Amino acid sequence: MKNIDGEIIVxxxxxxDGSFEFIQNSFPSVTFLWNTTNPGFxxxxxxxxxxxxxxxxxxxxxxxxxxxxxxEKSIGFIRSHNNEVALGIKMVDGSGHFLKESKRAFPSPxxxxxxxxxxxxxxxxxxxxxxxxxxxxxxxxxxxxxxxxGAFMMIPKKTLEKTGGFDEHxxxxxxxxxxxxxIQEAGFKNFYFAESSIIHFKGESTKKxxxxxxxxxxxxxxxxxxxxxxxxxxxxxxxxxxxxxxLRGSLSAISKTGKKFLGIKAPDLFINKPAKVVIxxxxxxxxxxxxxxxxxxxDKLVLGRIETDNILSANTIASFRDLTxxxxxxxxxxxxxxxxxxSFKQIISAMQxxxxxVAIKIFAKGSHAIIGSDDKNVAGDVILKExx
Length: 388
What we know:
The protein is of the alpha/beta class. The chain has helices at 19-23, 41-51, 70-80, 109-117, 119-122, 157-163, 175-185, 211-229, 231-262, 283-296, 323-329, 344-351, and strands at 9-13, 31-35, 56-60, 64-66, 85-92, 143-145, 152-156, 189-200, 275-281, 300-307, 316-319, 334-339, 359-364, 369-372, 381-384.
């Protein structure tokens, strides 16, 4: 927000991890509201919306990192469309992989069936079978879409004055679909914006393969369908959804049986080998990150530094512009990007070039921890700097 006249509002839904004590006096320019219960995603965002004064509202998840020019570019795009559009954005996860929920269609009964049955995975670019995530649309081009992801929704305030905020009948999941639907009903358009991107760490709320997730997703979609498609379609949707869940469970069981029959074993998660780490950083950033690893992560072996200004010195193993080649001549298991001399924009772009086998972590300037999230089904990793 360096070049933007704006405000930051943070709503905390009764965190029990010491957030209040750690944060309350650290950011005097930020407005905080500390809820004493967890009223859910929709209600908390509506609390912030009532407080907001800006011409544009950005609903942003806390488990995100945005590029430095992201907000300016997003606002510029909306203005170029006469403030008649709402905006979602290209999102990647903690491993640099594109997140399909960045662009979505509305969940009609048949579209949801294709998604939950696994047919969308079999035909990922099909206009029909992959319609839920609009698999036929390029991830690198701006496109009009149906649904904006709740992790990043930028909406003109005048639009929200017509549509209202999130429907508080949704506790988690579905509220972004509902608001996207009402934006279209009010005569505006939703766009997927590919000219900037953000990191959206996954695995910080509900495990995507858990029974709890399926129940919450089903409940949210049922509320949406009843509200916008009518009770008749809601019954049809319920039938399709239960059939899809049955098929998906059957395919999963067949897959496990096949692997067992073929003798394919799951990886041994209990072999504790030191992770070999490379660090992309200036010399001072490298020393600080290495010190944290030495104090708090004894299972890390630092192989060397990737020079960020592209001028190799005696103690570096490669330059940042040659990042893709680092993993051809080294057996690194992990890379840490230090933000400071490197921008978040550069890091987000570079993450997408890192091989799948290499874990990614980020150490932001002025922060107290090295963080990363490599699996959407588990919580992320935090290597915490000791207090001085």
